[in-house]
Amino acid sequence: MQIGECIDVDITAIAHGGHCIARHEGRVIFVRHAIPGERVTVEITDVTKSFARGNCISIINSSEHRVKPPCVYARPDGCGGCDFQHIEISHQRALKSAIIVEQFQRLAKMEIDVSVEEVPPYLHWRNRMEFTVSNNSKLGLFASRSSQIIDIDKCLIASEKIDIPTINSHRLPKGKRVDVAITSTGQQEIVIEGRENFTLIHEKVRDFEFSVNPISFWQSHIAAPELLSTLVRDFAEAQAGDHVFDLYGGVGLFTAALLTDVGPGGRVSLIEFDDNAITDAKRNFAAEERVEIVHGKVENALKRYVAANVVVLDPPRSGAGVTVIEAVIALRPRVIVYVACDPASLARDTAYLKERGFKLEKLRAFDLFPMTAHMECVARFIPK
């Protein structure tokens, strides 16, 4: 099998990461722009000893779930940001549900039943965008698994308030990152890498107003902050007087949600490593004596504590890992709430928790990244 070779294959299943699975002469091929059940022609783009990668370049037998991608850049030689624009939206969620189930079967050795829940809107949902300036001094997005920058003048998953042509009209430094943030209050801030003249932005979730550095992490789907903070609060079931830990707490989205439940005698310890997020969190909770802000790696910071009532963690895509899981369990919480943007990481950490005496009691999943292969899960664990 050679790069550039074209092969007719049957697409058998969905894979984690936005690819579908096909086989040819005993070799697995991970295929983009296809749908399980189709027969397609694949152009091979990458070959390793154990598998190959390729793009679907023509359809022999089409799936009933195939639609015309609404974005002109959603094509094999285009932007790599959206994996599923060629798939009808409800079937996107069905495939994402299958991905979660498969990851739990393979990594946690568990059979689960979960359906990825819809969260409108499906287009123009993204309130944070990260671009890279191309050699043409235009905003661009990377092609799939490539350093190639694709110039764009419109992004259909970005907020309609992000005016790419207007930003492109300015002198942009080639190769630099450009972050654009649109807030729930309608504020826009553009940050160009190497230029520090930005303004703090403000986000409001329920009755709490956050002051945020525009490059600090914030949930990208416009509906995500309220949805996730509400669900975390429901799953945590924090009580008056509780000591709650908000691990990888960022600017304090979940800390703010949990303060009401812990009451005047409770407290929340927010632990975060990112410098910008810690600065934001300290500012947001400067007048709140019940909130402790800890700057450091979670696995190191937890060593100073001996007990917790509730632990909430929202780790990066790579997951918490066994060291953090063991540190959390050592605190003997009655509830662990895990927010995950990667089902494989969640499944691995679920296996660690299961081996150490915790069971998965509840799991919900949400389509907070429509048109992409990503989804968000929230899990509740309790001691067996």
Account of the 3D structure:
With 384 residues, this protein is α/β, with parallel strands linked by helices. β2 (13-14) and β3 (20-24) form a beta hairpin. It has three domains: 1-66, OB fold (Dihydrolipoamide Acetyltransferase, E2P) (Beta Barrel); 97-121 and 205-210 and 218-383, 3-Layer(aba) Sandwich (Rossmann fold), CATH 3.40.50; 128-200, no CATH class. The chain starts with 5 loop residues before the first strand and ends with a strand. The radius of gyration is 22 Å and the shape is globular. It is built from eight helices and 21 strands. The chain has helices at residues 89-108, 164-168, 224-236, 253-262, 275-284, 298-301, 322-329, 343-355; strands spanning 6-10, 13-14, 20-24, 27-32, 39-47, 51-61, 116-117, 128-133, 139-142, 149-151, 177-182, 188-192, 201-205, 208-212, 243-247, 267-272, 291-295, 310-313, 335-340, 358-366, 376-383. It has an eight-stranded mixed β-sheet, with helices on both faces. α1 runs parallel beside α8 and α3 packs parallel to α4.
Structural key phrases:
alpha/beta; 6-stranded mixed β-sheet; 8-stranded mixed β-sheet; 3 domains; OB fold (Dihydrolipoamide Acetyltransferase, E2P); 8 helices
SSE blueprint:
Layout: E1 6-10, E2 13-14, E3 20-24, E4 27-32, E5 39-47, E6 51-61, H1 89-108, E7 116-117, E8 128-133, E9 139-142, E10 149-151, H2 164-168, E11 177-182, E12 188-192, E13 201-205, E14 208-212, H3 224-236, E15 243-247, H4 253-262, E16 267-272, H5 275-284, E17 291-295, H6 298-301, E18 310-313, H7 322-329, E19 335-340, H8 343-355, E20 358-366, E21 376-383
Helix pairs in contact: 1-8, 3-4
